[in-house]
Automatic annotation (TrEMBL):
<keyword id="KW-0067">ATP-binding</keyword>
<keyword id="KW-0804">Transcription</keyword>
<dbReference type="Pfam" id="PF00072">
    <property type="entry name" value="Response_reg"/>
</dbReference>
<dbReference type="InterPro" id="IPR002078">
    <property type="entry name" value="Sigma_54_int"/>
</dbReference>
<feature type="modified residue" description="4-aspartylphosphate">
    <location>
        <position position="54"/>
    </location>
</feature>
<dbReference type="InterPro" id="IPR003593">
    <property type="entry name" value="AAA+_ATPase"/>
</dbReference>
<dbReference type="InterPro" id="IPR025944">
    <property type="entry name" value="Sigma_54_int_dom_CS"/>
</dbReference>
<keyword id="KW-0547">Nucleotide-binding</keyword>
<dbReference type="InterPro" id="IPR009057">
    <property type="entry name" value="Homeodomain-like_sf"/>
</dbReference>
<dbReference type="InterPro" id="IPR058031">
    <property type="entry name" value="AAA_lid_NorR"/>
</dbReference>
<dbReference type="InterPro" id="IPR027417">
    <property type="entry name" value="P-loop_NTPase"/>
</dbReference>
<feature type="domain" description="Response regulatory">
    <location>
        <begin position="5"/>
        <end position="124"/>
    </location>
</feature>
<keyword id="KW-0805">Transcription regulation</keyword>
<dbReference type="InterPro" id="IPR001789">
    <property type="entry name" value="Sig_transdc_resp-reg_receiver"/>
</dbReference>
<dbReference type="Pfam" id="PF02954">
    <property type="entry name" value="HTH_8"/>
</dbReference>
<dbReference type="Pfam" id="PF00158">
    <property type="entry name" value="Sigma54_activat"/>
</dbReference>
<protein>
    <submittedName>
        <fullName>Sigma-54 dependent transcriptional regulator</fullName>
    </submittedName>
</protein>
Length: 460
């Protein structure tokens, strides 16, 4: 027995009882209405899965207009209910008219029982699909709200930052591709999110992809998706990041770490505004706003043949350079105060203050890890604080270079970290070149950096 509610509306009582008898063997609830005027007051019409609706109710009238009128009334009150029209006058144009106005199907009287049951069954499937689509759409809406709710404020009053934010406001509502450059931890991702938040795409998703963490052989599958069976591990169809970001913003972080092969594939997707999934040959159109970020000098990489010039032209219609924290001194104490309040609240330590000597120490430090380093430094100081005032000694800045003065105190891990930093510095932040110099693969280098990251953050 199928768990569905059916309503039959016909002015012929013998039609009503015949259909009631036939359908109640298959469906849990079958109700009948002799007078269509009762449709308007029918309780919980939205819960009715299928309506079987006669087209002509007044004696001698067979235009079908009454049926079309009631079809519209039902659709107004319950758009997902499937309506099957019934008529003894099988004019094809009338059937087409009803289908155009939202009917699911059409049955001619006298009907064939088997055919009628098959029609009702597919109308029920249609109703279920419509409900699923609605549920998925609602779910998608909620997910988008959750994904987009990471709206950390951008703190800072320095002219350098305000100039960047002015440009962000100017370009946010255009669809131009934006390249954001700047050192690690300067707030590139935050700026990208702000561009999305101020754009007409703000109610759609912001998808963030860390290109440095994607190995070359997974690049296409991650970005463009794949079809089931296209390679050994492709157990299911997969939607890539481009498709997932459709109508929204796609943020490609660490774009300077892409191999030349991956760059060519990315260029083709951007140029064609479409992607082809691995294992398919059908292009799928995508409508995305592209924002890329890097701490590498892409112009230099173009000169040394490590980055495609045509790709650079595509991604940097507008170039935003986020200044390092040491060039926006005015922001250091404002940011410190912001993070102090944030972590005092998080760790339940109200009333914490920074004294003037501490302020001086923070102002004089060059912050090589920029705002991320300042943030972690404040978090650690708040956690370790014992009194109400955070003193200079609560901020163990630059301990890593301190320990490197004493070779006896360095661990193998610290030396490895230093080597990696040096190789990255030497190669202008280019992971591929640094990996080659260190004699490891780009993936291994990336894994090592990832492994060191928490330690590096804590040590600062
Ligand atoms: N102006 C700012 N105001 C408040 N918080 C900021 C600001 N800039 C950066 N942050 C915070 O600092 C941290 C690092 O910022 P973000 O991840 O945007 O930097 P990034 O330049 O993208 O770093 P990476 O190059 O390592 O990817 C984040 O927690 C971010 O919220």
């Amino acid at each position: 027995m199928t768990d569905a509610k059916i309503l039959v509306v016909d002015d012929n009582k013998s039609v009503l009882s015949a259909l009631e008898i036939l359908l109640q063997f298959e469906y849990k609830s079958v109700q009948t209405l002799f007078n269509p005027n009762q449709i308007s007051s029918f309780p919980n019409l939205k819960e009715v899965d299928i309506v079987l609706l006669d087209m002509n109710f007044s004696a001698g009238v067979n235009t079908g207009n009454e049926g079309l009128y009631w079809l519209n009334e039902i659709k107004k009150r319950s758009p997902d209910t499937s309506v099957i029209m019934m008529t003894a006058y099988g004019a094809v144009d009338l059937a087409v008219k009803a289908l155009k106005q939202g009917a699911s199907d059409f049955i001619l009287k006298p009907w064939n029982n088997e055919k009628l049951l098959a029609t009702v069954k597919s109308a029920h499937q249609l109703r279920k699909s419509r409900q699923e689509i609605h549920q998925l759409k609602n779910k998608e809406k909620e997910l988008k709200q959750v994904i987009n709710q990471d709206n950390s404020p951008i703190i800072g009053e320095s002219t350098a930052l305000q100039e960047v934010l002015n440009l962000v406001r100017k370009i946010a509502r255009t669809d131009v591709n934006v390249l954001i450059t700047g050192e690690n931890g300067t707030g590139k991702e935050l700026i990208a999110r702000e561009l999305h938040r101020l754009s007409d795409r703000k109610n759609e998703v912001f998808i963030n992809v860390d290109m440095g963490s994607i190995s070359d052989n997974l690049f296409e599958s991650e970005l463009f998706g794949h079809v089931k069976g296209s390679f050994t591990d492709a157990k299911e169809d997969r939607t890539g990041k481009f498709e997932a970001a459709n109508l929204g913003t796609l943020f490609l972080d660490e774009i300077g770490n892409l191999s030349l092969q991956a760059q060519a594939k990315l260029l083709s997707a951007i140029q064609n505004k479409s992607i082809v999934k691995v294992g398919s040959n059908k292009p799928v159109e995508v409508d995305i706003r592209l924002i890329c970020a890097t701490n590498c000098n892409l112009d230099q990489m173009v000169d040394s043949g490590l980055f495609r010039e045509d790709l650079l032209y595509r991604i940097n219609t507008i170039h935003l350079e986020v200044p390092p924290l040491r060039n926006r001194n005015g922001d250091i104490l404002i940011l410190a105060d912001f993070f102090l309040k944030k972590y005092s609240a998080k760790y339940n330590k109200p009333g914490l203050r920074i004294n003037s000597m501490t302020q001086e120490k923070l102002m004089n430090y060059p912050w090589p890890g920029n705002i991320r380093e300042l943030q972690h430094t404040l978090e650690r100081a708040v956690i370790l604080s014992e009194g109400d005032v955070l003193r200079p000694t609560d901020f163990l800045l630059n301990t890593r270079s301190g320990s490197s003065n004493d070779p006896g105190m360095r661990t193998l891990e610290e030396m490895e970290y230093e080597m990696i930093q040096k190789a990255l510095e030497f190669n202008d932040g280019n992971y591929s070149a640094a990996a080659e110099q260190l004699g490891v693969s780009r993936q291994t280098l990336y894994n090592k950096i990832k492994k060191h990251k928490p330690a590096a953050d804590n040590g600062k």
